[in-house]
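Supplementary notes for students who missed Thursday's class. We covered one full example, reproduced here. Read the sequence, then the structure, then the short commentary at the end.
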Amino acid sequence: MGTNKKSGYVIFPLCALTLNIKFKRLLDYLIHYALVHLATNYTLDELGYQYVVNYETKHLPEDFVEDIDSNIFEKCLFIEADKRNVKINSIKRAKLNYCVIKLQMEKFSKDILKIGGNENSVEIRLKVSVIEDVKNNNSKIKKEGLNEDDFRVLCAIYSALGVDIYKPIYYDQIARRAMGYQSKPLFDELTKHRSQEIIGFMTIDVLRTSIKKLLIRNFFVRQYDGRREYYSKKLSEKQLYRVVQIKLQKGKIKRKKEALKNKKLKKDKMKFAKSLEGMDLKAINDLEKNLNEELNKYNIISF
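Structure (token representation):
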């Protein structure tokens, strides 16, 4: 099983990065969470049985088909692992790891409500091969592969981008999300009693080093416009440059149009002031009354 197959994707919540466990174990947790989540969804669906039958007929050995009705969940779990070239050594361990992250998600949902927020838990979609690469090269001394900092920064940027084609992302956003916190209020609330060293908050130098490495590996592209840095994982470097260029040009057009409008308004104001010359008090009061009536049509109180 698991031979000559492309690396598939897994989806996991950003808040899982806040778990206080060894990094290699955390990577296993992320994979197990994604696989168990998928398998659970299938077992809750009437299509689960047919899904297993169809997959087993094409890909799995004959002895795996025995007692197909006994545990659809386990079979779905192994299928999802097989499709992603992942080996499940213990179903119990996979379930436990899933539960740990699920509880963390529930905790974060309560914390978000506590601070008055209404955003949903942010999810990240990542290739299994990327996680495996990090597992094999997670020493911060190694430069050839991705280490823990690189992985966290990648998750931060992908979570910030979400489904957007491109987006401005700031270093403080990346630093917070790299630790698993999706917003500043949430970060401030959950870390206010902890020192910066315990949090492991990333420095600018660490962020820049990881971003540079990820850019070289083509995980995303970046473009600076003089004020902000825009990121994209869907556009090429050339395309993002052009999009940002157009955005800047449209900004200049908008400002020019506003300036022309203001110029016209100023001109009309001067023309109106000139028209008031020579008018007596009654004529001015009548004009003011007409203006107030016009405002009332828009439900605006006279000012």
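Commentary. The radius of gyration is 29 Å. Residues 237-276 form the longest helix (40 residues). If anything here is unclear, bring it to office hours.
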